[in-house]
Design goal:
alpha+beta, seven-stranded mixed β-sheet, 440 residues, disordered N terminus
Length: 440
């Protein structure tokens, strides 16, 4: 049996993963690809056309090995660091049958996928198995063109020794976070802080999450993005007031951070100097059970919703695939609960659970996998799983959203939250206009 993948693709992937040699998941991916390469060279030729999967998720090399072991149809993984930029395929390139990656839902990529509604009609996969909000996000013009694979959520982490300060065991609202942080503050007689519950200026990603909760509604518009300016101003004003009313000023917050919080976040909350640290679920559950056993967490919320992280992984069936029936077998297998149990077991047995979380680095999009299987692998999730009705996603983001966020949105938030009168921040629109002039 011959499995085909381009040697040039393997070589590019080998180079990319050499740079990431300290990543356990990357090593597994390289081993898997080299195994495929050897298989190409020495196997008997019975099947000339495997399912070609383009992905930016290294773990799928391991997952496809599980699939291949139990199916006559075979799958080959081709790693694409930015899969959304690789469509359409180059003229001399083997096109994909399936694409599994982040940032697939945008105006430049959605046209490359076929509707998957027929798979629901044929009961190959069930709509009821997925989280409603995530499934809805995969709709394009009323059809199901993308299927959610995984997702992550924002969380506030604290030491288990401080767990009793919170009444709710599942979520923490911004108001409670601010109040409890202020109550935790400790100062010497001369006003120097020795403990500070939390400070808005410590993490721009936290401010970004709050802006989403407040309805800033970042979304694709033309070649860049739009947002709700009133909600953004509300976020900035709220966080600036938090700083001045609880922590004196931004300079005091950052001096405290420099003095006491130069250690990893999980150590910060154990040190006694701060009460909370912001992490995504992917970051928290990749700490490993030995570390996370001493920590507690609450989902960051406004009391009604929890905003799903932007980089949700989606699956699309390439519209020009000639192997749709074979691709359907992989898709059907991927979303079975037993398949995902095997994926989690494989990661555990290969000692990868400290470098990757869950299904390709996130919660499963299949509700029952999270509810019945995840707690067996992540004990801190027992009784604290995300509720379907709380999950919320914003509109379609541009393909280059990571660039926009890191170079425009986060710097804007960092500067705007500074309470110093010497700082005169540009507006978000001014930053976007300046960046657009340089790039376009």
């Amino acid at each position: 049996m011959i499995l085909y993948t381009k040697p040039s693709t393997i070589q590019r992937t080998r180079s990319h993963l050499t740079e990431k040699k300290h990543s356990g998941a990357a090593r597994v991916f390289l081993v898997a690809l080299l195994a495929f390469q050897a298989f190409i060279t020495f196997s008997c030729a019975k099947q000339q056309s495997p399912v070609i999967i383009w992905t930016d998720q290294e773990e799928f090399a391991s997952y496809t090995e599980l699939f291949n072991a139990s199916h006559s149809v075979k799958a080959v993984v081709v790693y694409k660091k930015e899969a959304f930029r690789s469509l359409p395929p180059a003229r001399d390139e083997q096109p994909p049958d399936i694409v599994i990656a982040s940032w697939l839902k945008n105006s430049s990529t959605r046209k490359y996928f076929s509707s998957l509604d027929y798979m629901f009609g044929e009961q190959k996969i069930r709509k009821e198995a997925f989280y409603d909000e995530l499934l809805k996000y995969g709709e394009i013009n009323g059809g199901q063109y993308l299927l959610p694979v995984n997702f992550n959520l924002p969380a506030m982490v604290l030491s288990k020794g401080n767990d009793s300060v919170l009444d709710d065991d599942h979520i923490i609202s911004i108001g409670v976070l601010k109040t409890k942080s202020a109550e935790f503050n400790r100062q010497t007689k001369n006003g120097a802080f020795t403990a500070m519950g939390y400070a808005p200026s410590w993490d721009a990603d936290f401010a970004y999450q709050l802006s989403k909760l407040q309805g800033t509604d970042y979304r694709e518009q033309d070649s860049t993005f739009s947002w709700n300016e009133d909600s953004l101003k509300l976020t900035v004003n709220y966080l600036r007031d938090w700083t001045t009313s609880c922590n004196t000023d931004t300079e005091t917050e950052q001096n405290f951070q420099f003095k006491y919080l130069f250690i990893p976040k999980y150590q910060q909350v154990s040190s006694g100097h701060c009460l909370f640290a912001y992490m995504s679920s992917k970051e928290f559950f990749s700490l490993g059970e030995e570390v996370s056993a001493n920590l507690s967490f609450r989902w960051l919320s406004d009391g009604r919703k929890i905003m799903v992280d932007d980089d949700i992984v989606m699956l699309g069936l390439y519209r020009r695939t000639k192997e749709s029936q074979k691709a359907e077998q992989f898709i059907e297998w991927l979303f079975r609960e037993e398949s995902q149990r095997q994926m989690l077991e494989r990661a555990r047995d290969m000692k990868l659970d400290t470098v990757q979380f869950g299904i390709a680095g996130g919660f499963s999009s299949v509700k029952n996998v999270n509810n019945t299987i995840f707690p067996s692998f992540y004990r801190t999730l027992l009784g604290n799983l995300p509720a379907d009705e709380f999950l919320c996603m914003e509109g379609m983001l541009p393909a280059r959203w990571l660039t926009y966020k890191e170079r425009i949105v986060l710097p804007y938030l960092e500067e705007s939250l500074n309470t110093s009168e010497k700082v005169h921040p540009q507006s978000l629109q001014e930053r976007l206009d300046a960046w657009s002039r340089q790039v376009f």
